[in-house]
């Protein structure tokens, strides 16, 4: 049996794994568990050594995520909250969840070290989903990403805010940043920079103001809430959420992934299910060249 420090060293070599990644069979031996079984994340398509998901309380996890945002940002908040909740659930794999160093997720804040790429909330969701057995990983991940794209956030309803202990931040004159001040926006993208920019445009708060941090903390809680909701539904076999933007059908009729070679090439292939028209509008073909000019830069950026 290895000690906790050595287990963490072995786990830390997985610096960036997400949904669908393939890892070697021996990844982490959980020292507190009986036996010496390793966690094998999707190795050879076999989930026998993934960790068992048991139903959690979405609101309790959301509260943990809101508090976790202050300690390590959005990705940490979501990942830490669900791992800690599963570790405390007292089931067969609880000790293995307890051995996971959740601070490995802090790299995702601000869209990966502040670069504004994928939002840490959904990045964390995919990383957590990739650990779990008993659920449909692809469906839960797609449902979560689609929720992030299409939903007005933060939700701002009184019951949810009271349950997670929000808001906690204030304006420059000391006014608590309630929902009327904080505002809402729809990201129409899973990118951090698009999400924050459109919220800033809607709320008229700068992205370095305390309002932005309050907004992102609440979004962290909301995504953690929805992640657990979808996981619970998947476990029950009742998940029936939208998995892809309906408008994508217009695009994928020409831009789906194919096996074409140059002599049969018709237009750029796209291997993606994320919303297309948040950054690309419908276009007319002019001389065989696609023209995406209906949107201004500020609509996406």
Describe the structure.
The chain is mostly helical and 301 residues long. The chain has a domain at 56-236. The chain has helices spanning 4-12, 58-87, 94-98, 120-129, 137-150, 158-164, 179-182, 192-203, 210-236, 248-255, 297-300; strands at 28-29, 38-39, 51-52, 132-133, 152-153, 185-186, 285-286, 289-290. The strands form four sheets. The protein has a two-stranded antiparallel sheet. Strand 7 (285-286) and strand 8 (289-290) form a beta hairpin. Helix 4 runs antiparallel to helix 5 (137-150) and helix 4 runs parallel beside helix 9 (210-236). Residues 6-31 and 284-290 have low confidence and may be disordered.
Bin the helical content. 40-55%
> What radius of gyration results from the CA coordinates?
21 Å
Strand content: 5-15%
The main sheet comes to:
2 strands, antiparallel
Overall mean pLDDT score?
80
Q: Span from first to last CA? A: 51 Å
Strand order of the largest sheet: 1-2
By DSSP (H or I, 4+ residues per run), the number of helices equals 11
Task: Indicate the overall shape.
Answer: globular
Query: Unreliable segments (pLDDT under 50, ≥5 consecutive)?
Result: 6-31, 284-290
How do the SSEs run, as a string of H and E? HEEEHHHEHEHHEHHHEEH
Q: How many strands appear in the DSSP assignment? A: 8
SS content category: mainly alpha
List key phrases describing it:
11 helices; about 300 residues
Chart the SSEs and their pairings:
Layout (H helix, E strand, L loop, with lengths): L3 H9 L15 E2 L8 E2 L11 E2 L5 H30 L6 H5 L21 H10 L2 E2 L3 H14 L1 E2 L4 H7 L14 H4 L2 E2 L5 H12 L6 H27 L11 H8 L29 E2 L2 E2 L6 H4 L1
Helix pairs in contact: 2-4, 2-9, 4-5, 4-9, 5-9
């Amino acid at each position: 049996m290895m000690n906790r420090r050595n287990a963490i060293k072995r786990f830390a070599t997985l610096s960036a794994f997400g949904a669908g990644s393939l890892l070697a069979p021996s990844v982490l031996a959980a020292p507190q568990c009986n036996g010496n079984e390793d966690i094998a994340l999707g190795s050879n398509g076999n989930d026998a050594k993934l960790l068992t998901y048991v139903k959690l309380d979405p609101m309790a996890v959301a509260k943990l995520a809101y508090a976790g945002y202050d300690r390590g940002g959005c990705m940490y908040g979501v990942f830490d909250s669900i791992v800690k909740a599963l570790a405390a659930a007292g089931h067969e794999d609880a000790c293995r969840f307890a051995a996971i160093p959740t601070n490995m997720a802090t790299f995702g804040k601000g869209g990966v070290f502040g670069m504004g790429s994928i939002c840490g909330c959904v990045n964390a969701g995919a990383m957590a989903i990739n650990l779990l057995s008993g659920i449909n990983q692809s469906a839960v991940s797609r449902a979560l990403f689609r929720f992030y794209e299409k939903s007005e956030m933060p939700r701002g309803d009184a019951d949810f805010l009271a349950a997670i202990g929000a808001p906690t931040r204030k304006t420059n004159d000391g006014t608590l940043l309630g929902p009327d001040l904080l505002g809402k926006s729809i990201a129409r993208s899973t990118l951090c920079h698009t999400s924050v920019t459109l919220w800033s445009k809607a709320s008229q708060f700068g992205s370095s103001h305390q309002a932005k941090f309050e907004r992102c903390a609440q979004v962290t809680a909301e995504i953690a809430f929805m992640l657990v909701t979808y996981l619970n539904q998947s476990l029950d076999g009742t998940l029936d959420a939208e998995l892809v933007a309906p408008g994508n059908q217009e695009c994928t009729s020409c831009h789906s992934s194919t096996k074409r070679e140059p002599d049969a090439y018709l237009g750029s292939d796209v291997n993606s299910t994320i919303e297309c028209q948040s950054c690309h509008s419908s276009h007319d073909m002019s001389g065989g060249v696609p023209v995406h000019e209906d949107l201004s830069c500020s609509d996406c950026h």
